[in-house]
Design brief:
about 80 residues, mainly alpha
């Protein structure tokens, strides 16, 4: 991974949250793209991704962001 060095700056818990969020977002993009044709415009994919996130009730990256913020606050305060 190109961001291997970033693992040095966060805890294992935070890094797992980041990688889990990335995998979840890839799954969402794949699910969203299944309903589209190959010639569909990017805006259609964006709309489909948003719809999948709404159906799932969450955006996976939000959990990872919160974990990193909490960790940063603990270190910086």
């Amino acid at each position: 991974e190109h961001n291997l060095a970033q693992q040095l700056y966060v805890s294992e818990r935070s890094w797992k949250a980041v990688t889990d969020a990335k995998e979840a977002m890839v799954a969402i993009v794949n699910m969203a793209s299944e309903s589209l044709g190959e010639s569909s415009p990017g805006i259609a994919l964006s709309k489909s991704i948003i719809e999948v996130c709404i159906q799932q009730g969450a955006i996976p990256t939000q959990d990872a962001i919160q974990i990193i913020k909490l960790e940063a606050r603990a270190i910086l305060h």
